[in-house]
């Protein structure tokens, strides 16, 4: 079940939130601790106002909630709320047998026996879940992983405790995968946000249902993802998941925040992942874990796509292809014969190689001259510092911006400020957030032809999709 956490201050507001998310959810959790005082007294009315099972929760401040009442007052609100037809009630695992529990059992309301740990994963997580489930209740462990290794522990725990009714949640930014892959975590439900997340790391209900199709994931679902740090800004899930759905492939693609690449490979093996995309800062680090690499990876020294092949992982680089795709005709027609590449980072390596491989004369400009010199030496091209950019005005057919200068939120920065375009150049900025960077705005004013980072992103993603699935990226999706 996808369960929406309700954090409105009135019952009406919460009922409205359910209505607007109804297509994405199967259950809801009424967080009574978020209700106004008057509304808390009327909580029993809520289940009759909606058409899905509701969990009754009055979370204490020590467990991350807002209820600072005495235990006696808290029990009294819960008892009065239980007059309504709640399907579940959340009772913390340190609460001894109480009148709330008795009333719930008498009314056939299922008990979720929960514990929270905001500092980490407790050593006794196995026994606590086991004990909580002893009386036939549903055990809920909301804990806080701090690394990929911790995330892997959560999957281990859930496998060890197969057959027990439970909810295992990894809170915070390291736990997002446990929320999306809740079924692989053996959880009966995952908590979703409607807008602002009530708990750290919560994913919104619409994305869980439509983008990740989390409620359809089974042991047979192929798992793919993108690894990086940071990673949650990545738009790759929006490329791959709709593609999988369109070709009817039972697969999911999700972001994995990674601290240690070795731990991630252990997780990837555990989840029997079929492949993943690689972003900053792992494009080079990933190489030592690959059994085979493509010719492009060998040449460029950076890998953005990893695919499982029999007995090993194989690395590819689709950045070079994604970059070339929008301008390849102009190169073939002779419209682009020379290029100025701004930047000498990982992306620049692939781009310079792609251009040189097609016979384009390249000059690299970079803040750190030695990095430009290294790429130039490998690709037989010229290099210079950013300060000398003006020297190249009017001398090239293509200007490619590959630095991170101008990236969101620094909209008004341009690494070659003051560079004058003649209007004949093709100007290509590989930054995709924002779409229109400062350098592109200036190039547009001069009448240049523009290319955008999102074109490269989509094209490299489409090729990745082919490597993952063996199918072309569906036209119906790319035309949307
Ligand atoms: P990277 O390896 O970290 O390289 C960063 C580059 O930016 C280096 O050349 C660096 O110069 C330069 N730079 C950073 N801050 C600077 C500053 N304040 N002034 C001047 N130069 C500065 O990163 P990357 O992987 O190449 O990625 C670079 C950008 O490309 C990112 O914005 C990324 O999102 C984008 N990208 C887009 C796509 C796509 O599909 N559209 C694909 C890959 C990357 P130094 O050498 O002097 O440090």
Account of the protein in words:
The structure is a single chain. The chain is of the alpha/beta class. It has 3 domains: 224 residues, Aldolase class I (TIM Barrel), CATH 3.20.20; 96 residues, Rossmann fold; 134 residues, 3-Layer(aba) Sandwich (Rossmann fold). Helix content is 34%, strand content 21%. The protein is built from 19 helices and 21 strands. It has a 9-stranded parallel sheet. A 6-stranded mixed sheet has the order 11-10-12-14-15-13. Strand 20, helix 17 and strand 21 form a beta-alpha-beta unit. Helix 7 runs parallel beside helix 11 and helix 10 packs across helix 18. The radius of gyration is 27 Å and the shape is elongated. The two termini are 29 Å apart. The mean pLDDT is 95. The structure holds NADP nicotinamide-adenine-dinucleotide phosphate.
Main beta sheet: strand number and arrangement?
Answer: 9 strands, parallel
CATH class of the largest domain: Alpha Beta
Bound molecules: NADP nicotinamide-adenine-dinucleotide phosphate
Helix amount: 25-40%
Q: Key terms for this structure?
A:
single chain; 480 residues; alpha/beta; TIM Barrel; Rossmann fold; 3 domains; nine-stranded parallel beta sheet; six-stranded mixed beta sheet; 21 strands; 21% strand; elongated; binds NADP nicotinamide-adenine-dinucleotide phosphate
């Amino acid at each position: 079940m996808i369960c929406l956490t309700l954090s409105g201050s009135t019952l009406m507001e919460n009922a409205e939130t359910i209505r607007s998310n109804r297509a994405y959810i199967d259950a809801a959790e009424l967080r009574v601790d978020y209700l106004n005082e008057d509304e808390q007294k009327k909580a029993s009315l809520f289940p009759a106002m909606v058409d899905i099972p509701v969990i009754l929760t009055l979370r204490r401040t020590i467990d991350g909630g807002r209820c600072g009442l005495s235990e006696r007052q808290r029990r009294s609100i819960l008892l009065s709320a239980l007059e309504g037809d709640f399907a579940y009630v959340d009772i913390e695992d340190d609460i001894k047998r109480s009148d709330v529990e008795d009333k719930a059992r008498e009314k056939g309301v299922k008990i979720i026996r929960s514990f929270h740990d905001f500092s980490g994963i407790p050593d006794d997580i196995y026994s606590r879940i086991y004990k909580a489930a002893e009386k036939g209740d549903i055990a809920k462990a909301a804990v806080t992983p701090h690394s990929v290794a911790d995330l892997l522990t959560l999957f281990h725990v859930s496998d060890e405790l197969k057959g027990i009714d439970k909810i295992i949640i990894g809170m915070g930014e390291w736990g997002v995968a446990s929320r999306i892959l809740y079924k692989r975590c053996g959880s009966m439900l995952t908590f979703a946000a409607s807008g602002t997340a009530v708990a750290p790391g919560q994913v919104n209900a619409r994305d869980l249902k439509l983008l990740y199709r989390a409620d359809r994931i089974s042991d047979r679902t192929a798992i793919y993802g993108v690894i990086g740090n940071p990673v949650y800004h990545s738009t790759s899930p929006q490329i791959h998941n709709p593609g999988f759905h369109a070709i009817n492939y039972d697969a999911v693609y999700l972001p994995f925040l990674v601290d240690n690449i070795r731990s991630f490979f252990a997780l990837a093996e555990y989840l029997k992942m079929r492949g993943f995309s690689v972003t900053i800062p792992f494009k080079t680090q990933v190489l030592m874990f690959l059994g085979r690499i493509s010719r492009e990876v060998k040449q460029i020294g950076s890998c953005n796509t990893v695919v499982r092949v029999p007995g090993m992982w194989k690395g590819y680089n689709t950045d070079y292809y994604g970059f070339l795709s929008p301008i390849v005709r102009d190169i073939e027609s002779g419209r682009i014969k020379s290029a100025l590449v701004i930047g000498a980072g990982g992306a620049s390596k692939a781009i310079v190689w792609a251009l040189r491989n097609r016979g384009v004369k390249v000059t690299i400009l970079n803040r750190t001259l030695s990095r430009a010199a290294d790429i130039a030496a490998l690709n037989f091209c010229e290099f210079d510092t950013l300060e000398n950019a003006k020297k190249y005005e009017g001398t090239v057919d293509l200007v490619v911006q590959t630095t991170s200068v101008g990236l969101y939120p620094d909209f008004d920065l341009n690494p070659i400020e003051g560079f004058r375009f003649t209007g004949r150049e093709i100007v290509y900025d590989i930054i995709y957030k924002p779409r229109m960077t400062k350098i592109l705005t200036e190039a547009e004013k001069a009448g240049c032809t523009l290319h955008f980072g999102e074109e490269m992103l989509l094209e490299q993603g489409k090729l990745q999709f082919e490597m993952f699935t063996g199918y072309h990226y569906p036209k119906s999706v790319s035309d949307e």
